[in-house]
Design a protein that fits this description.
By secondary structure, the chain is α/β, with parallel strands linked by helices. It is 40% helix and 19% strand. It has an eight-stranded parallel barrel with strand order 1-2-6-7-8-9-10-11, surrounded by five helices. Strands 4-5 form a two-stranded antiparallel sheet. Helix 1 packs across helix 9 and helix 5 runs parallel beside helix 6. The longest helix is centred in the first third of the chain and has 17 residues. It is globular, with a radius of gyration of 18 Å. It binds magnesium ion. The site of magnesium ion has 3 residues, from strand 2.
């Protein structure tokens, strides 16, 4: 039985090696760097859509009264998200004049297009595991309510959060971020793939091929250097998440 599995794995490995793979571009926190707009702003999402990126990534935290907001850090302008109400958070302005986006407003801004997938990162709560899981439920509910489930994928550093998304939305595409699970462990858990820091993939050179053999999707963050982009493209990574989507788009044209 083991031999059959090994032969099948080798067969799919050679099939995957022989097929041309086009790496997909994911704008990390939107396309903000070269467009000079704030990261995780709706303006950055629009720029990623205009660039025709495959995906635009963004980060989600939850207010004290359980409203998800889009931003990277646990605090903004010295205001700690998890301890502040939505009414207070809604008064915050980003540097381009936009209000700090709620997840709902962000999802609605990404609606009515199918070019660019919404790559939703569920941030780990600093308060409790229960809040991470509550945020997960809120995210899935809002994705369904706003009608963007067909264009939304999920990523998270907390493995339990990834499992919870699959429980709540079995059809959703979920990738794990932390880098401490092998492709076999990702597959056994029923997740769709991984989104690992590129250094993890450089250290574990067989993981991309192993993942492809298991039909898992592969994504690497946050790759801004052309030489590392090329290293990953040569190894047929499915997606690259970058602050430099313009640079990666040009590289893929060559
Ligand atoms: Mg993120």
């Amino acid at each position: 039985m083991k031999t059959v599995a090994l032969v099948l794995m080798l067969f799919s490995f050679f099939i995957s090696m022989s097929q041309p793979v086009s790496t997909k571009v994911i704008a990390h926190r939107g396309a903000w760097k070269n467009t000079h707009v704030p990261e995780n702003s709706i303006a950055a999402l629009h720029h990623a859509i205009n660039l025709k990126c495959y995906g635009s990534e963004f980060d989600v935290h939850m207010s004290a009264d359980s409203v998800p907001f889009v931003l990277h850090d646990h605090s903004i302008q010295d205001i700690y998200i998890e301890k502040t109400t939505a009414a207070e958070l809604s008064k915050i302005k980003l540097s381009n004049g936009e209000a700090l986006p709620t997840l709902e407003s962000y999802l609605l801004a990404g609606k009515n297009q199918t070019q660019t997938r919404l790559i939703l990162e569920i941030k780990t709560s600093q308060v409790s595991k229960a809040r991470s899981l509550a945020l997960t439920k809120k995210c899935v509910e809002l994705v369904n309510k706003t009608g963007v489930a067909a264009i939304t994928d999920y990523i998270a550093f907390d493995f339990d959060v990834c499992l919870e998304v699959k429980k709540l939305a079995p059809k959703a595409h979920v990738q794990y971020l932390t880098g401490d699970k092998t492709p076999a462990q990702i597959e056994a858990a029923g997740l769709d793939g991984f989104d690992y820091h590129f250094s993890v993939l450089q250290k574990n050179e067989n993981w991309l091929a192993d993942a492809h053999a298991l039909k898992l999707s592969t994504n690497a963050w946050t790759v801004n250097d052309v030489a590392i982009m090329q290293w990953l493209i040569d190894r047929k990574v499915d997606m690259i998440t970058t602050n430099e989507p313009e640079k990666l788009i040009e590289l893929l044209k060559k």
